[in-house]
UniProtKB/TrEMBL annotation:
Keywords, sorted A to Z: Endoplasmic reticulum, Membrane, Transmembrane, Transmembrane helix
GO terms classed as biological process: lipid droplet formation; phospholipid biosynthetic process
Protein name: Fat storage-inducing transmembrane protein 1 homolog
Signal peptide stretch: none
HAMAP family: FITM1, FITM2
Membrane topology per record: Multi-pass membrane protein
């Protein structure tokens, strides 16, 4: 009898413990659900606002003009910025982690956004790959431009080694001008690694890739507002992963614009930065305003949002035609 009573008391105690654990878990789940709902509502509000701004005709038609004005007149800010600012240090964290891998950040985040948007709108692998090929073509353009510019800089520039001449003891003290010893058959990279001087014409590759990535991000993200409108009409909201990736792309766009402003203000280089911005603009113009508007028979991947839905197509084509006519 004592053994049975002890077993029943142990079973009752375990049941009470389980009920207590369930009660504690329910009390913890309710605040967690509230926080998740609050974050989801904030994410939905911010992404809806950003999609409305980036999808507006003002941004889509005139963003390249704003970017051109920033590249042209940004070096004027060098007269007001402080040379002791943390952004005047070329070894700053932002320059090391973002500027040296601009295309890597842009291709990963933009490619993820295009992938999720295509799969969310149309479950077609061939259509998704066609839209992703736009990012790949921009990458090929960037690597080709970088290789060509490197070859042109090596051909047009010369490498010098500064040498201090021996000063005559009998002559009065006077500032001695360092001599420059010419080194032939040196590339720009090897010359700078040897701590020598490189003189020649150059194009700012940093400004080129930042301008190209900014224009690419605006083009790819501009169709998200139409996707939201279609989902609202069909009573189908896009998932949180797609909204989160869109938000990351918008943050990345702000980072690129800030880095571009820092380069122009703290490290002005005329006309190398302006030439880089012009080449970035021409690359975007040739792809998004030229080749991507051709018929599919030419092997072009099409414009952002093309073929994903009838709603996007009917809303997008009049805006695109208006953009062509206006430009």
């Amino acid at each position: 009898m004592d053994l049975k009573a002890e077993n029943s008391s142990n079973g009752l105690t375990s049941e009470l413990n389980l009920e207590k654990l369930h009660r504690i878990a329910a009390e913890l789940i309710l605040p967690g659900r509230f926080m998740v709902g609050l974050l989801n509502a904030a994410l939905e509000f911010v992404t809806n606002l950003l999609a409305r701004v980036l999808g507006s005709n003002l941004v889509r038609r005139h963003f390249h003009l704003m970017l051109s004005g920033l590249v042209l007149f940004g070096p004027v800010l060098s007269f007001w910025v402080s040379k002791y600012s943390i952004f005047a240090n070329s070894n700053h964290y932002l320059y090391r982690k973002f500027l040296k891998s601009t295309w890597g950040w842009t291709s990963i985040l933009t490619g993820s956004f295009v992938l999720l948007l295509s799969l969310s709108a149309r479950h077609s692998l061939s259509l998704t790959l066609r839209h992703l090929s736009r990012i790949g073509l921009v990458g090929l353009l960037w690597f080709g431009c970088r290789r060509l510019l490197t070859l042109l800089e090596d051909a047009a520039g010369t490498c010098y080694e500064p040498m201090t001449p021996v000063q005559d003891v009998q002559s009065p003290a006077s500032p001695v001008q360092p001599l420059l010893l010419l080194h032939e058959d040196q590339t720009k990279a090897s010359c700078l690694r040897a701590s020598m001087l490189w003189r020649g014409y150059e194009v700012s590759q940093d400004v080129l890739i930042i301008c190209l990535c900014c224009l690419l991000l605006v083009e790819e993200m501009s169709v998200f507002g139409i996707h939201l409108a279609q989902g609202k009409a069909l009573q189908r909201s896009p998932g949180a992963p797609l909204r989160f990736i869109f938000l990351l792309c918008a943050v990345l766009l702000v980072i690129w614009l800030f880095l571009l402003l820092c380069l122009l203000a703290y490290f002005p280089s005329l006309p190398a930065q302006q030439l880089g911005g012009a080449l970035g603009y021409l690359g975007w113009r040739g792809l998004y305003q030229g080749w991507y508007r051709l018929r599919p028979s030419w092997g072009c991947p099409g414009l952002p949002g093309e073929g994903l839905s009838t709603t996007i197509d009917t809303h997008k084509h009049p805006q695109q035609n208006g953009t062509v006519d206006e430009n």
